[in-house]
Design a protein that fits this description.
The complex is a heterodimer of chains A (about 170) and B (about 425).
Chain A lengths: L3 E3 L2 E3 L2 E2 L2 H21 L8 H13 L2 H17 L7 H19 L5 H27 L7 H25 L1 E2 L1
Antiparallel strand pairs in A: 1-2, 3-4
Chain B lengths: L1 H5 L1 H22 L8 H33 L4 H35 L3 E16 L7 E4 L12 E3 L4 E8 L4 E5 L7 E5 L5 E6 L5 E4 L12 E4 L11 E10 L5 E7 L8 E12 L10 H6 L10 H13 L4 H12 L12 H4 L3 H16 L26 E4 L2 E4 L15 H5 L3
Antiparallel strand pairs in B: 1-2, 1-12, 2-5, 3-4, 3-12, 4-5, 6-7, 6-9, 7-8, 8-11, 9-10, 10-11, 13-14
Helix pairs in contact in B: 6-9, 7-9
The chains are: A mainly alpha (about 170), B alpha+beta (about 425).
Chain lengths: ~170, ~425
Amino acid sequence: MAITYTSGEQVEVYRFSIPATVLIPLTAVFLQAWVPLRFPFFSVFDLPLLVTIGFATARRNPLAGLFTGGFIGILQDALTHQPIGLYGISLTVVGFGASSLGIKLDVENAGARFLLTIVFYVVHEVVYFMVARGMVGLRMAWSWPHEILSGVANALLGVLVFMLLDRVKQRT
Amino acid sequence: MDVLGRYRNLIVLVGVLFAQVLGLAVQVKRTSDSESTRLIRVWAVGAVTPFEKALVWTQTSSRNIWHNYFYLRGVRAENRSLKAQIEQMRLEQVRMSQDADQARRLQALLAFKEQFISQTMAAQVIGGSGSELSRSVYIDKGYKDGIKDDMAVITADGIVGKVLRVYRSTSLVLLIDDQTSGVGSILDKTRLQGILRGTPSGEVVLEKVMSDETVPAGELVLTSGGDGIFPKGLLVGRVTKVTPGSDLFLNIRVRPAANLSKLEEVLVVTKIDERQAEPDQTGAARAVDILAERLPGVPSKPENAEKGAAGTAAAGTGSPAAGATTLGAQASPGSDGKAKTAPPQASASGGTPAARKTATAASSAGAGSGTVSGPSTGSSPGPSSGSSSGPRTTATGTDAVKVSPKPVKTAVAPKPQPAVEDSPH
């Protein structure tokens, strides 16, 4: 049993069943592609990102985090007409960072999750912006107010998503 | 080895990122659609779209059941209203067909080849890309349905985009508000051409219009046909704002006619034909013929009564034939043209000229630009074979009619029935 300790406090490591590991990211990508067509305001949310953060912080394994992020990102890329790798790279970074931070911090309470989601939302956007603009040559505009507000909106939804993930995660 | 073990996670991260960056670079380097990622895309689309299809099917079915079997309130009233609308539209269609006929003749003179949509396929939008930087949607038709790359996608309101990638039973449609799309466009009135593009924020702009041109807000934007995807003349949208842009070009914002954020059903243009314009030889229907269908039937009458009736009708002021002629003259006020009719004594020389004037009046009322020269008789309630042939003066026998060269609005002309009043019973 892999148990890590932070400041003398016991931090538990969780795992997810194989159906949950496959179906939850798939559902997140599906909802991200389908819901904005009916409710355009939903495009401000990034469900695959929230699932990546949720999986990474629960597993607390950087390798699992980066591979989960990479897999979800590539799946997300494959549905767009842009080159594959834009979301893949940024979610790989987010998955690795969230799981690494999850080892050091207690991310079981809603406040920590809220802040963590805002931070990683901005990290995701920065990496995506750099790759999309620097490598692919897409025209993109950066707006801090927009990114912060989107981060807060995603963090609010993230707290709910993490609560749902808590129900399916299993103690190792 | 100890160092490798300590930094194992970091090394794996760098390796994974390097692999993805390399893959991205290879894709960007290739200008054509990268077949190297085709398999990944097929798997992803195959994993996601069945759920989307199932959800859309469930949604559509439940909505259809509700609307078609339960919620039928106001259907009868709506039916009556639609029937009345159809009548109005049929009259409008007569006017339009005559205008189109004239346009075809002019195009034929110029040896102009026109493109027209000859076949479309209805498709349902089942999902999006899930990314704001990729403004595209998936439709439930793929190559097994005959969809191919670069086919135009439209709605009744306006153009939507083009087919970018085709899978077995789904296709990816690139919307016109995506920053990588480009549509050859032309402004309706000023006839200025430009390229319609999307912006990162999802707006649509018309580029490459010189800054010394004047473009009024509210002007319609149509497809120019220059991109080889959309046929010429389809509605794109309307100009909302014009500002001086960078360089030498105007920054023209366009609001798309189709609601791109709420697409449900679209039409894929599967076939575009090109043909030489030919004038319609069959003769256009007239407004009077449309209206005649709503009038009660006319009993047959003897031949001598027919002649007498026609003569009386032409000379008399209260007769329907004269009334129709007057109507033709009345249809012109408001327009620049004037309908000139021959003096009554000249027209009264026979039944035919009066009927000819009747037909002319009806045609003039319908299209506003045409001279009827078909063999119509005053007693004949059937459709005349006269067709409008542009602004010119025709003199047939003693009857000379000059028709307004400018279009006038459709007037409701009563069907000439002179024999009804004068026939002996």
